[in-house]
Specification:
This protein is an alpha+beta fold. It is built from eleven helices and 15 strands. It folds into two domains: about 10-275, L-amino peptidase D-ALA esterase/amidase; about 285-405, Ubiquitin-like (UB roll) (Roll), CATH 3.10.20. The chain has helices spanning about 60-70, 90-110, 130-140, 145-150, 205-220, 255-275, 295-305, 310-315, 320-330, 360-370, 395-405, and strands at about 10, 20-25, 35-50, 75-85, 115-120, 160-170, 170-180, 195-200, 235-240, 285-290, 340-345, 350, 355, 375-380, 385-390. GO terms for molecular function: L-glutamate N-acetyltransferase activity; L-glutamate N-acetyltransferase activity, acting on acetyl-L-ornithine as donor.
């Protein structure tokens, strides 16, 4: 059968749409009322790849998870808590992460190294292992609910984030689903951002790792909310092979590219949902940079624009202050010919050949005021490469939320 290239988004789909996965969440008492302990597992050990924060202060769970994956490049289960990040917690924090892993491995009846651990929340506090132990004891592996898992990993998020894409590979239906959390301290390379992806595709570990890194580089690493990179960021994908497709390899360029494209679409959706849900945000900002000599240049300029506090506040205030966009491009560190630069807000050109056009300011102000998705387009006229970046506006509520985060 000829390979189908069309990617189909599954409404209401997510990490449980792929065959052979189960997940849920419980309240163990780290938070006052809300779910705060989530679990995910595959019926069989799954090839696993992950990427992590570049922050030098990597949280204890990341160290344990890296060790787990390194043994066989496989994981069967994941246990994750919210409320306490278990970061900057020293030897006790590492011991707690190991204990958390062991407790869930016992629950699953599998080896410790087949369990990954993640945490998100306040930095510098020790986990209450008695609460974690009681929470894991509550888990009913026969019950499975995607939304409970998604709620259990939230911190300041205002909603859960899901996506699912399906495609056909060599006559078999393959599913890739994902759930993420992230609202503040988002400036990935990566940042407080967790994303867990599942697929029933059969794919070799090396190919899975390359596909994930490519997808993350074009998506999660192109968002910023506030310029802060967290200690706990993780994007992890589990591939259990239950779709029974012919195993994807790097040499199988056609199917590998199809899988990578689908994975990138999943990651892009989750990245945009995170950017839209920035703490106190009222608008999603998408920047498209075209005409660059290098993709890296386009990405750097895009992230600089969406990361600019002055651009973000101008969008929040519906102020057509194009000078702030030009200014941010100028300090992005990318060499360019300013006389070639073109900038549009929405479909309204505001800069041509490096100079302002005679645009109708009220039209731009109204575009910024009445739309909750704001598009800024920059053309460098220096090449054929392009990139996208996503962020959000900066509102009064961002300060309120973060001024009282621990209270």
């Amino acid at each position: 059968m000829e390979t189908q290239t069309e990617l189909q988004e599954v409404t209401e789909g997510g990490i449980l749409t792929a065959k052979g996965f189960h997940a849920g969440g419980v309240h163990c008492g780290i938070k006052r009322k809300r779910h705060d302990l989530g679990w995910l597992y595959s019926e069989v050990p799954a090839h696993t790849a992950a990427v992590y924060t570049t922050n030098l202060f990597q949280a204890a769970p990341l160290l344990v998870t890296k060790e787990s994956i390194a043994v066989e490049q496989k994981i069967q289960g994941l246990i994750v808590n919210s409320g306490v990040a278990n970061a900057c917690t020293g030897e006790q924090g590492v011991a707690n992460a190991y204990q958390m892993r062991h407790l869930f491995a016992q629950k699953l009846g599998t080896s410790d190294h087949l369990v990954a651990v993640n945490s998100t929340g306040v930095i510098g506090e020790q986990l209450s292992m008695e609460k974690i132990k009681q929470g894991i004891a509550q888990i009913n592996l026969n019950e499975s609910e995607q939304e409970s898992f998604a709620k259990a990993i939230l911190t300041t998020d205002t909603y859960t984030k899901h996506v699912c894409i399906q495609l056909e590979l060599n006559g078999e239906l393959v599913t890739i689903g994902g759930t993420a959390k992230g609202s503040g301290m988002i400036n990935p390379n990566m940042a407080t951002m967790l994303a867990f992806l599942t697929t029933d595709a059969s794919i070799e570990p090396v190919a899975l790792d390359v596909a994930l890194r490519s997808a993350v580089n074009q998506t999660f690493n192109c968002i910023t909310v506030d310029g802060d990179t967290s200690t706990n960021d993780t994007v992890m994908i589990m591939a259990n092979g239950e779709a029974n497709n012919q195993s994807i390899t790097l040499a199988d360029k056609g199917n590998f590219q199809l899988f990578t494209d689908a994975l990138t679409k999943v990651c892009q959706s989750l990245a945009k949902q995170i950017a839209r849900d920035g703490e106190g945000a009222t608008k999603l900002i998408e920047v498209q940079v075209t005409g660059a000599a290098r993709m890296e240049d386009a990405k750097a300029i895009g992230k600089t624009i969406v990361g600019s506090s002055l651009v973000k506040t101008a969008v929040f205030g519906a102020d057509a202050n194009w000078g702030r966009i030009i200014c941010s491009i100028g300090y992005s560190g990318i060499e360019l010919e300013t006389s070639k630069l073109a900038v549009s807000i929405g479909d309204i050109p505001i800069v041509q050949h490096g100079m302002p056009t005679h645009f109708h300011e009220e039209l731009v102000n109204n575009y910024l005021k009445w739309n909750d998705e704001i598009k800024i387009t920059v053309d460098l006229h220096s090449g054929s490469e392009e990139a996208f970046a996503w962020g959000c506006d900066l509102s009064y509520d961002y300060v309120k939320i973060n001024a009282s985060y621990r209270t």
